[in-house]
Amino acid sequence: MSHVISEAERVGFERPAFERITRPVYFRRPERESGLIAPLSLPMEKLKIHGGQPLAGEVLISGAKNAALPILAASLLTGDELRVANVPQLADIGTLTRLLRGMGVRIEHDGTQVTLRADAVTQAEAPYELVKTMRASILVLGPLIARFGRARVSLPGGCAIGARPVDQHLKGLAALGAELRIAGGYIVADQPTRRRLRGTRVVTDIVTVTGTENLMMAATLASGHTVLENAAREPEVVDLANCLIAMGARICGAGTDRIEIEGVETLHGAAHTVMPDRIETGSFLVAVAASGQHGNADVLLRNTAPWSLDAVLDKLRETGANIEHSGNGDNGAPRRKEQIRGHWIRVRARGRPRAVSLRTAPYPAFPTDMQAQFMALNCIADGVGRITETIFENRFMHVPELARLGADIAVEGNTALVQGKPTLSGAHVMATDLRASASLVIAGLVAEGETQIDRIYHLDRGYEKMEQKLAALGARIERVK
To answer: What pTM was estimated for this model as a whole?
Structure first.
């Protein structure tokens, strides 16, 4: 059986004419409905940074948030115990574990190890109160339908960085035999007969990471053979596939654009170690490269995945940074926990970096999640950098905040031209999304004077104790209320 998904509808937006950004007037502040405003119960913390220090020392990279989230959701596919190691301690992880606990999943934390058992799930619902803060909550949809035949999952929220429709998830699950409807802002699946999903061929018209993960998880318990065409190739998809295989799933092709799954009756418990976070790694690498203009910057990053960062490392070398890293494992990706923890990257930089141009695209091309960080580096680089964003249509929300620090950036549509300046000046700025917050931290580290960053709950969604790790490298940074 073949099912070809029609082209996804895109949300249009007006692009401003080519103009130099000198103040935030050109960008509308996001409203509360976007999910950007922190809940009133959270303390409104901020970061205070005194820039001008080169970074030096060692830093341990945490587990990948974007791998840990689907792996934790995969616990719903079995009633046995799933032990997951190297789980980062992040706000988004906390949100998902609260969501799973609300369904009846038993969860125990021991540092960075999480043990889950979904043998007494009482509710197949993901409420709006939790889903609105994190789009990855949609990842419970596939497992719930596959194992229980029912689900009620709120349409997702998360960062307001553009339209990220879930239609690919829904059409793919429908092709697998799920009966779905939208009611009251919820995705509802209710199959009274609880019949198994059935294998099929699904061709998505866009590359979607969470869509690939949702469909791959659902297909593990479907009857027959499933083929996912135009699948996402991200390392986090491979990490999820490795976990599912350890649980008894039959999957091949993960890491390519064609994944094949032979469904099984049940999955069993397993132990899995989450891969290192390549975006946290890249963010620290950029911070070190940028700080080199203030002296000898030299940092060793441990627990890394160099094979997942080829595009980022190439761009860093273009800036003039010296990059060394440990060797690759088989086919570029180590399989054992010991191999993963043994990998490292060393970055050294001195002097003003060179500006670089880049274009975001799905893996293995340059990741959209590193775009904002490189823009911050370009702000103090020698030359002009051209940054083109092709994944999200609203991912330049950090531009007006960088402009408050003195950055010289011109935006036309999905392209930003960044004219590097010798220095930035500290100012009071506001984080607008997860990766934008990291770009403001990098800019604050190299700016003269004091920078204060508000709304750092965005940062806490994806970076574990970032200010503590930077302070250990010599940065003058602290969290204040």
So the answer is: 0.88
